[in-house]
Design a protein that fits this description.
mainly alpha, single chain
Length: about 140
């Protein structure tokens, strides 16, 4: 089941909630990515195994974090939309995955991406916090 641009809808919502907190962009990215990842639990309805679905939730969360970093760095949606479209272009994405994937491979690939996204978001928050307030 497709959830078009779901993260794009949640990001402004969560930014409104977290704007007064320390590291608002990081917390916004975490919350919107968590929603994006958890939406993949719907694949259980299609008969996909629990382990495979949990792996999808994990890497969808990480991809959501990367999309948040891309959205912030480009101040727009088009780059993220293009990347998501390229991922969805794979014909196998529309069919439930069979079998169980390898967690080790997922962790090796996606943990570095998560670290990069978190590092970027923390740094951008720091840059924003150091900017003088213009009245």
């Amino acid at each position: 089941m497709k959830r078009p641009f779901a993260g794009d809808c949640y990001f402004p919502f969560f930014l409104g909630i977290f704007k007064a907190r320390r590291q608002p962009l990081l917390w916004t990215a975490i919350a919107s990515s968590l929603v994006f990842g958890l939406l993949h639990l719907m694949n259980l309805v299609g008969g996909q195994s629990v382990q495979t679905t949990l792996q999808q939730v994990f890497y969808a969360f990480v991809i959501g974090m990367m999309f948040a970093a891309i959205r912030i760095s480009t101040n727009g949606l088009w780059v993220g939309i293009l990347i998501h479209s390229l991922i969805d272009f794979d014909p196998s994405i529309a069919t439930p995955m069979t079998g169980n994937g390898n967690w080790a491979v997922d962790l090796i690939v996606f943990i570095p991406l998560l670290v990069i996204a978190v590092f970027y978001l923390v740094n951008v928050n720091g840059l924003i916090a150091r900017q003088p307030v213009v009245n």
